[in-house]
Specification:
The protein has strands spanning 25-33, 41-45, 61-71, 83-87. It is mainly β. A hairpin with a 7-residue loop joins strand 1 and strand 2 (41-45).
């Protein structure tokens, strides 16, 4: 049986934190780990048009995830709300 993966709404960002139009989105960082306050593992997704990503080979337990976006100069956003899934 497949795990019940969390399905966050992923709406690409359209503006910077100062309200200006976002013109240089470069990608996303998928941050995850076994502690929601310490997401220590990171997958860099360099295609800003990607709408789905699968994290494979997770050991059993509860895993927590958040996403950040980054622009071409490397500046990174605050992370999204943390979501979780349980792997059996």
């Amino acid at each position: 049986m497949a795990p019940d993966w969390p399905k966050p709404a992923r709406i690409p960002p359209t503006e910077n934190t100062d309200g200006s139009v976002l013109t240089n989105l470069a990608g996303y960082n998928v941050r995850y780990g076994i502690d929601p306050d310490h997401l220590t593992q990171v997958i860099k997704v360099t295609n800003p048009g990607l709408t789905a990503y699968v994290v494979d080979n997770l050991s059993p337990g509860t895993w927590y995830f958040a996403i950040t976006s980054y622009v071409s100069d490397g500046t990174e956003s605050a992370h999204s709300a943390v979501i979780s899934t349980k792997i059996s």
